[in-house]
Amino acid sequence: PVNHSLLLVLGGRARRLHVSVVLNAKAKVAMSRFETGSAVNYEKLLNNINIVRKRLNRPLTLAEKIVYGHLDDPTGQEIARGRTYLRLRPDRVAMQDATAQMAMLQFISSGLPRVAVPSTIHCDHLIEAQTGGVQDLQRAKEVNQEVYNFLASSAAKYGVGFWKPGSGIIHQIILENYAYPGVLLIGTDSHTPNGGGLGGICIGVGGADAVDVMAGIPWELKCPNVIGVKLTGSLSGWTSPKDVILKVAGILTVKGGTGAIVEYQGPGVDSVSCTGTLPFTLWLTLCSPWSLSMATICNMGAEIGATTSVFPYNKRMKTYLDKTGRKEIAELADEYKECLVPDQGCQYDQLIEINLSELQPHINGPFTPDLAHPVSEVGAAAQKNGWPLEVKVGLIGSCTNSSYEDMGRAASLAKQALDRGLKCKAQFTVTPGSEQIRATIERDGYAKILRDVGGVVLANACGPCIGQWDRRDVKKGEKNTIVTSFNRNFTARNDANPATHAFVTSPEIVTALAIAGTLNFNPETDFLTDAKGEKFKLVAPSGDELPARDFDPGEDTYQHPPTEGVALRVDVNPQSTRLQLLEPFQKWNGKDLENLRVLIKVKGKCTTDHISAAGPWLKFRGHLDNISNNLLIGAVNTENDAVNKIKNQLTGEYGGVPDVARFYKANGVEWVVVGDENYGEGSSREHAALEPRHLGGRAIIVKSFARIHETNLKKQGLLPLTFSDPQDYDKIRPDDQISITGLKSFAPGKPLIAVIKHIDGSSEKITLNHTFNETQIEWFQAGSALNRMKELQK
Q1: pTM score, whole prediction
Q2: Cβ-proximal residues to 674 (8 Å cutoff; 6+ apart), any chain
């Protein structure tokens, strides 16, 4: 029994102590059904939170509780939002197959026998959409056999769980099996924050960061700021949870969340009915785990540059854990709920308020996910700007919106069209998020309805969302419009066509526009004409949040690692074009970097897609030399406004960026890249850092960086530097030589000096800032973080 007198004296602290004592006596609860030997450790989370809260003497946000709750040293760690680097102990690692290749190659190079934390590999990126799910999956297994065998065998040897091709998209699999309230999970994909929809802090990283965690080394993260989003009111009609993040993206832009965790809170989250009997209330849609709607919002937080996003623990999360076989975790989360919600009175660095009752359906684009338009206005905007009005293809699914309810709501619109004798005027594709979702929508008839209206059900994989789309209805360079329920719409991302105008919106708006065949259609007010020539309006979509007969798990696609993998072999054929063992990068020679050539001065937006394209290049993700042939081929050169056309300063001839870089390397000439704002936004792909290092790059000098890319550059021994005065960008000319001085006294917080030598003999000095801490400086000096890891093992 609880001593109530003690509670009156000590308040909540006594309750926490009592809970801790009771739970100490309980059996440990496994983190997942696949890892019975690894337990959820809420007690440690609580203890760390109490230590930090006492030190800081203030209420904590939810983001702070989970992040600080995983500190390696909660007693001694310096904590200052936006300034200090935290050393953290994540609970687990997840890797998708395109990035897992390089991550596992790096782990093999480390010489360690087995991963130190639960880790998984998910085969979702290498399946190209062509004709349909069954055929595309079979072809992918054949084309990628060498890579799949490598990943499966290395996973088995080093103790990593392996999800086979066809299992589904990494983020959906994580949500169904591995994410839980309070978890700290890192994943080698920028949309790892999807798991925040289940109350975890899930962060996208590069492969080298994953290797650190798998090696049992504390993981470094700059102490994030916290942006609060206060939700009030409720959703209704055609407005969906996707519109929340589309609105937030319009407010914050693609870099407004950089260095911050976005934390959703307010009466819109906590006080709306959970009964499910009120159509379109926030709890039915936003907080429905079946629609993964909180996950949708967290997933697309990557598009504002946020470190991650998170929702507080609630009853719907409990129900979802229950229904996905994790009832014990839900019961434990109930006991420790105070760790899983923000403290009253906690302070945010920025607070945004969104009234859901006033929110309109949105559609964002083209070419950037932060160009927000109400659906009611996008037709006029298209006419004004010369964007094609005809919708060529509508695509629903992806890791952002591919739940059972998403499919059900789309199917409800498709059925209305079919009942009036209509099919989609645009091509229409459907991507299920997982094998479980695919099997269930097939069983319950949603897939048939979507096919009947003209849809093609693709494989349970990323597909067109990441450029794995063998599109043949338009020629490259042909101006056209597509609408998707994806998360990202950078130039040429989906189909390798720079003239494709891609817009992102909710699955229901995609479906409506695919039926209408035009951007100039507002389903809330506009009419369609049926097969009999009669006018009608689509009724707002509806869909069950979960299947009446529960989920159909479909085919079992998981490979357990054996308990001991020492005797297993992982072979890489030296003649392979897909895989290549890594050679260590050279150590710093102890001198300043002199007379570096400017490989390219980049104009405007330069995402990781521009630096290291995906699509057909994904096949080379395990072969550093081959994939380096796509280095910066999408970046715009300031000298001539062309892509992949730069001047070789040694020969005077123009060539492709990777060709000139290779020429410089072969002739012993090191180089720099000069860039603009938010350089490296988008995907977490570390190849955008590995490739410039491999081809002789030494520094990247820009106005500002995206978080993940800046860290990836540091990990590979490059110098990510920013102009102290952004106008200094204009001082650098393509034919300059740059010397970076001050490296002998390289120290945290101490700027470096660049000496710019112009071709006319004149020179000038500029100041370059950096965010290196002492550990990261050691990475640079050793040649890379992996080199430094090996040094410490000796």
Answers
A1: 0.90
A2: 598, 600, 601, 602, 701, 702, 729, 732
